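Dear colleague,

Thank you for sharing your sequence with our group. We've completed the structure prediction you requested, and as agreed, I am returning the results in plain text so they can be pasted directly into your records. Please verify that the sequence below matches your submission; if there's any discrepancy, let me know and we will rerun it promptly.
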Amino acid sequence: MANERLLKRLALWQQGTKTSPDSFQLVDSIIADLTKLLNSQRGNVLIEEDMGLNDLRSLFNGHGSPDLEALQAQLLFQISEFEPRLTSPALTYNDETSGFGELNWRLIADTISDTSSQELAANITIDINGKVLVTSAL
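Please find the predicted structure tokens below.
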């Protein structure tokens, strides 16, 4: 239960739901929170100025290709800084699945839990509109 965010814990407590999430619920919760985090635009989050990515809507509008190294560094900073339930996150750009109007990375990290630890594998996709989608790679 301590691995959930405070407001989620309060909502579960009010609903009378079980208090100890299993490992699948933990991974689902982390993926949902990463999706929200990476879709936040930097400067628009009131609680932390550095939270969120730069505006990605114009990422594919230029004549040149996007700076993948800088974008990967931004993604990794956001994940390591603002998702404390993950340790040692690593991102790998996936050339094979990336194409016109879509960029793909593979995230590998370990989860921190009171009861156990497991590896999280997720795919991070940025589409042509700048929307970030995080899905489980299992």
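Summary note from our side: The first strand starts at residue 86 and ends at 93.

Kind regards,
the structure core
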